[in-house]
Amino acid sequence: MGPIARVPRLGWIVTDPVLARRVLNDHDGFGMNGEGGVGHLWTQLFGDEMGRFFGGARHAEIRTRARDLFTEDAARILVERSQGAHHAKLAKRLASGGTVDVADAARVLAGRMVADLLGLPADRPDDAYRQVFAAGERLAGLAMGTTASTALDPATVAEARTIVDEITAGVPRGYRDAGTDTLLGRCREMGLGLPLARGLATLLVIAGTETGASGTVRTAALLHDTGQQRALLADPALMDNAVREGLRVATPAAVIGRHVARDATVGGRTLRTGDRVLLLTYLATNGAGPFDVRRAYVPETRQLWFGGGRHLCLGAAVARTQVTRMLQTLLHTGRPYRVVSRRAARRVLVPAYAELRIRPAD
Fold this sequence. Notes:
The structure is a single chain. This protein is α+β, with helices and mostly antiparallel strands. The chain has a single domain (4-360), classed as CATH 1.10.630.10. Helices cover 53% and strands 12% of the residues. It contains 15 helices and ten strands. A five-stranded mixed beta sheet has the order 1-2-8-5-3, with helices on one face. It is globular.
């Protein structure tokens, strides 16, 4: 179709990384509220205050005042605190020749990390975090029918709100009691109301579990399937490349939607106010080639899998740290691992594995 094309019912489709970044960086011309933008979906669930968060000054304020929770150093501390003991158990099991389901482990670990970051109880049994993850999958799955329109019918909104109630059951207590080193504590400190805090908590659950687990597990699979584990074992300095390549090729946020807020020209095409744009980030990032741990940094794709502009994923450092920590665990034995069984997740918004069982290679 070329770098940008208009498709009936869907709107403008962008597959070029440079043009996609042009759209993401033009905050006056392209918004998240209005038909086509993810803010339109969240506003229908949480009200106008959530819409103002996506499109106004409050968004910048929250990002600024919560930024210290998402630095590289903070990410390492968070992941080790919430996941370290569990990684030690996984490493021990692999060292003894046992089998580990990386997909299940990633779901549990992502749930524990998000609970810790929010200020919710992080010491519950693993099944509790599996249930949170499953609820997040169900909520994200409701967006599968919004490719042609982000307007939700009343039945879908009611179903979504029921799932949100399940996901955020502990938020009122966390909002009241959590320390200011947590996201809910910051919300309280900033004077954000509980409804907006619930919306932000739900957003973090989706972003921190669905995409994080997908990127982690699919990177582990890519490293195995391409036979590049040995290169990483021989040269651990390639770890940052392996993580970046895994996220580039997997691109957990495979599509990003925007609403055209005013007439704009992109790639020589005129986009009119009210149009919708779908950025096919999976195609845009994969144009650089297949997974390769020796690939140099590609400036055109520059973390496009985390979005761009002022809505660039605030948890990017956390996501990279999670993937790194899992790969370190899987390679802890000093030997490559092999996939003994796998099963893809079906009817999910974020492509993922339902199961990916691995064990050390013989």
